[in-house]
Amino acid sequence: MILIASIALNGWKVEQLDANPMIGPSAQTLIRMGAKDSSLIVHENESWRLVSSIGLHAGLVHYFINMLALYFVGSAIETSHGFIAALILFVIPAIGGTILSAIFLPEYITVGASGGIFGLIGACLGDILMNWKLLFSNFVTENAKKHRHAFVVVCLVMDIALNSIIGLTPYVDNFTHLGGMILGLLCGISTMERLSADFFGVEQGCWSKAKQYTVRFFGLIVSVISIVVATIILMNGDGETTPCPSCTWLSCVPFPPWKGSTWWYCDDCGRVTAQIVYSPSLHLELKCPDSTSVAIDLDPNENLDREDLEKHLPEYCRDFCPKIDVRRYREL
Questions:
Q1: End-to-end alpha-carbon separation of the chain, Å?
Q2: Using the 8-state DSSP alphabet, how is residue 195 labeled?
Q3: Which of 111, 244, 281, 288 has its CA 20 to 30 A from that of 99?
Q4: With bands split at pLDDT 50, 70 and 90, how would you rate the model's confidence at 60?
């Protein structure tokens, strides 16, 4: 329903693939709907965007891939560990992943529930690691079930790889995925029920039991502290500068990365605005992503089509605005 609402707000149309390869609305529409925007979060105190962005999706492709992963992974965790555990493992990593994205990618907007989904995946990996000896034990598990468990591990790894590739496109980022998976792993250690080794006749010493309890509380404590510290770092920052400028390559890569026709770009040009100015001469006053303005001369003898001008704003931005990252991509 939210995806339909975003497309409706976008005039019942989807953007071109070079603006949004996920087949969805524009950046401005996503911002109006509540996308993660570090500048607005820090300077306008719109911290609610850390939550609202979770319910948004970049487009149809993003939505269906997320729903497919959520159906298989989420339903498996809910069946095995209950609704409350599944909810915790989704919400906390989703918010934590968005905070990490806001810190490391302040110049990009981000939407999607991918952080929560990666939280569920991280919890599954934690569950497998905690019970590895039992799941792949010759004494407890038959060979057929071992192969089934190995197949589950392979599927999880493939899901991580697929979503990481999607994280290289605009409006979806791998910092949300990374933060979600780490917090999901930690929360999973603290919330998911373990298989009892004693139940299978495998004796556990006092040291093993003490280690299990220590690890369990450690995961919960580290998760809470990490979110608090990350939130403080975000709110005390300027909402514009990333602590790792080169890390943006981990989250968005223009494709194809060579000269010629580019399918999509990794810049802020999709959210620029402009106005037509008639004096002293007819020109378009374009507000660039860095808040500077540039004047683009218009032909007074041609009919002004506002819709066509709006369609070409990202192109004007890349051609005339200074300090646009896409320029270095074009030189590859």
A1: 40
A2: P
A3: 288
A4: very high
- How high is the mean pLDDT of the chain? 82
Which of 50, 7, 53, 2 has its CA nearest to residue 26?
7
> Is the CA virtual torsion 230, 232, 237, 243 positive or negative?
negative
Cα dist. 48→40, 170, 199 in Å? Answer: 10, 21, 45
Q: Which residue has the tokens 């602590």?
A: 243
Ordered alpha helix ranges (H), the chain: 2-9, 27-33, 38-43, 49-52, 60-69, 75-81, 83-104, 114-130, 132-135, 143-166, 174-191, 206-235, 306-311, 313-320, 326-330
Q: What are 289-300's pLDDT values in tens digits?
A: 777 889 988 888
- Determine which helix (DSSP H) or strand (DSSP E) holds 275, and give its type and residue range: strand 273-277
Q: What is the pLDDT of residue 56?
A: 93
Mind listing the pLDDT tens digit for each residue in 186-236?
888 777 665 555 544 555 566 666 666 676 677 778 888 999 999 999 999
Rounded-to-integer distance, Cα 214 and Cα 19, Å = 48
Choosing from 6, 26, 53, 114, which is the catalytic residue?
Answer: 114
Q: Global pTM?
A: 0.78
Would you call 291 a catalytic residue per the annotation?
no
Of 230, 106, 118, 234, the C-alpha closest to 167 is: 118
Residues 262 and 252: their CA atoms lie apart, in Å, by: 13
Dump pLDDT digits (tens) for 141-182.
566 566 777 788 888 888 888 888 888 888 888 999 999 999
pLDDT value at residue 102: 93
Q: What are phi and psi of 108, to 5 degrees?
A: -110, 145
For residue 196, CA distances in Å to 38, 130, 191, 203 come to: 44, 11, 15, 10
List of residues 6+ apart from 15 with CB closer than 8 A: 24, 25, 26, 270
Q: Is 177 a catalytic residue?
A: yes
pLDDT at 257 over 80: no
